Amino acid sequence: MIEGDKIMQVFLPYSNIEESVKHLDNQRLNKQMVECHQILNAIVNKTGWKSHPISVMYSNNINSLVDYGLAACLEAKGRNIKWEKNYDKIISFYNDSLTDDPPEWLGRQDIHDSHKSRLLCKGEIDMLCLAIKKHFKFRSINTWLLANPIFKKEKNYLKFQDINRLRQIVKENQISLDGYKNYYKQYNWQVPMDSEYIWAKQ
User: Model pTM?
Assistant: First the structure.
């Protein structure tokens, strides 16, 4: 991702859309519904993010992105997460005059593996940040991260190289990680955690 850009990503650890959204944690699933609408709006209405890499990835496959967003909404419904407003916003972008053909890059193993890697990385950051937040009783982990000269950025902008810095803080403060877990390790994905997210080009 280009540093400084608004972070918008679609997570497809698998080529199957429904299978992909089933593997997302609740926080990320909710974020996908919101970001899917933002990406569609960028592509169709030419907003400020029309040149964002994720917009380029789906610029020729709008209905496929709608399908992804709707799949995320239905998965959210099954988990009793609010979904109705997102569903209405996303489905409004469906275009009957366009095909539902998936992007040409869908099914590329390197892309899906890179998404698995990014999710593993985010899961590790989530775990460490939650442990630090609860240990110090911070109201907001982002306020602490922004004020910390080591990071100076919000949690969503942290990358693999920040994991060791977080672990050092955990170690120095003798913060126990008992009861905390990386949500995505349960899937036993055999991919490194430090791979870059691949932005496919149309």
Answer: 0.92
Structure tokens at 130: 């939650």
The residues near 162 (Cβ < 8 Å, ≥ 6 apart) are 125, 151
User: Whole-angstrom Cα distance, residue 186 to residue 202?
Assistant: 33
At 119-143, the pLDDT tens digits run 999 999 999 999 999 999 999 999 9
What is the phi/psi pair of residue 77, to 5°? Answer: -60, -45
The torsion region of residue 106 among left (phi > 0), alpha (psi -120 to 50) and beta comes to beta
The Cα-based distances of 123 to 54, 56, 59, 80, 128 in angstroms read 21, 26, 29, 22, 9
Given a contact cutoff of 8 angstroms between Cβ atoms, the answer to whether 117 and 194 are in contact is: yes
Token pair recorded at residue 139: 């109201």
Q: Cβ contacts of residue 86 below 8 Å, gap of 6+?
A: 33, 34, 36, 37, 69, 72, 73, 76
How many residues comprise the chain?
Answer: 202
The answer to whether the CB of 115 falls within 8 A of the CB of 28 is: no
